[in-house]
């Protein structure tokens, strides 16, 4: 819609349901409308099949004002507990939640499929940013006839308020696990990942058994709103960082006003494999003084030695700055496949030695100061 008369200090509510419905509403505070400045309030990943809110919810507004507006969240009672919620539901008595949506969030040239999955827990399984849910896929454990499948852990990719900002949902970032015979190159469905395929194949309304929340090592420290957070991920390891960044830059949380530096390093195969890229690019545009975003595309970029560009190569590029930030108290986080850590550790050790430092002593100090956070799988 276009307005010929400027309005100021106006609140609007827009639909955020993935189907364009008004199941969930967000309130944007202090939006100034003008005649010519038109933009979409929400910019969701264009690679998704049906994240089309931006086509349906376009309004005209002052772009500068709108870009810095934050979303109201509820219930604020979720800020009240002092103790971390842990293991509210266990494998023997899981909570039955409901699938809200399953969306492919990678492009056609990405190797494999990654999905963004929204789960409705109706506010009964609260969690904090950086925690994980366990998922029990339906069916029988082939190694234990008559018993359910083992729990699979997934880092939560949303804030405690969920993608609908009402505290009733949680989001997971799941890569479909497939197995290909090394000799024939043919897919073997019998060896496919049971839980990831269940989740990626799920439909809205399907039931899912969840446990948790679990984990404390990746919790976002909020005692210092001016702190520096260096986040390193490969692939779906970006999940907890999406929650951090939404809390820092998207949500209007009265008790947490971030004014520090958040620096994301993300390693994936190619441009089509980037996860939540438009969301992160939006933060970079709106908060350039508080957010940095570096990508390592192993199949598209070369490192300084002419080899594939991995996330550890990006870390090496900025190693002096990273070490100085760590010396000044920055938190550093690692999340992704276990295979990422040896290369990263080797890089950090080499850089430390070039600086005349002992990496072993430095790592010990980082752990002692609770600056070092690792969750790999």
From TrEMBL:
Protein residues bound to NADP(+): 155, 175, 236, 298-299, 308, 336-337, 375
Keyword field: Chloroplast, Electron transport, FAD, Flavoprotein, NADP, Oxidoreductase, Photosynthesis, Plastid, Transit peptide, Transport
Keyword hit for Transit peptide: yes
Enzyme class: oxidoreductase
EC number of this enzyme: 1.18.1.2
Main location: plastid
Cofactor: FAD
SUPFAM superfamilies linked: Ferredoxin reductase-like, C-terminal NADP-linked domain (SSF52343), Riboflavin synthase domain-like (SSF63380)
Pfam families in UniProt: NAD_binding_1
Protein name according to UniProt: Ferredoxin--NADP reductase, chloroplastic
Lineage start: Eukaryota, Viridiplantae, Streptophyta, Embryophyta, Tracheophyta
